[in-house]
């Protein structure tokens, strides 16, 4: 493994520090507390190892969300989605293998295959085509007998766009035909704004035992500090391999983290509708801001998650670097620049789920001013 620090981590808000006053770079809802989520820790809780596969209750709750197509044995609990992604990629890929991965994407989905040293074909989702998935382009990139994995992120980070259920099905069928695995990062699936009727998107892991999905508590529930994520596959051989990887990394999870996750996930049906309603309202505020600044910026309206990928129509006064410097130093506003996602810096990720409503308003105003110099 050839580890390199990712730009998104080197420039993460917690690394930049107190100079940030209005943080519009985050990709989650606002951080919660044990009090806000009614989490209780019994004083007699034994601080021991947990079941290596993860809490049975967590795995049952995750499986239930699939509508009965999956079982708790199909779920492996990990220390966040990032650990799940690391396990899947390192278990399936070696330096002589080939992966097809879409961009933009969550940085770990790009950097771990790169660290492994395998051959990578990037399929760049195009702004002009609404960041839509092109299954034909992915099919053309597959190398029979060499391609081990197709990797996508839907709902997408950083764009907030969502692949249609029919597109995921087509991709799963393609992967099966070509005898490779399909990895779908579904971290924002719980924050799909329209999940009813024909827009309902079940977890892709229900589409076959060659499909693997990854998700997390961090983004939709505002608890990145408890480090709970999971991967799902109905393939028992893969589950055994992934469990072996987890055991060699950490043996088991944290009993405190898993207890907190159990309590939060048990309230999923209560918490998520309120969160989605709030995110719709915030997205609509950003939509009105984009309309107000239509001479300077444009976007693809997000369908899920807590963020969007804003594109500057032209270089701002002094250039993009001057814009980002001015935005932070003069206005105290922080956004996720395009290079975090291997795009040019005319793009930036704007997270509208984490700041307070007042900070979001102030942050948008700061961006408007910084764009003009």
Automatic annotation (TrEMBL):
Keywords: Aminotransferase, Pyridoxal phosphate, Transferase
Pfam families for the chain: Aminotran_1_2
Coiled-coil ranges per UniProt: none
Residues annotated as signal peptide: none
Start and end residues of each Aminotransferase class I/classII large domain: 48-354
A molecular function GO annotation: pyridoxal phosphate binding
UniProt keyword Chloroplast present: no
Keyword Transferase (UniProt): yes
Family designation: Belongs to the class-I pyridoxal-phosphate-dependent aminotransferase family.
Protein name as it appears in the record: Aminotransferase class I and II domain-containing protein
Organism: Hirsutella rhossiliensis
Source lineage: Eukaryota, Fungi, Dikarya, Ascomycota, Pezizomycotina
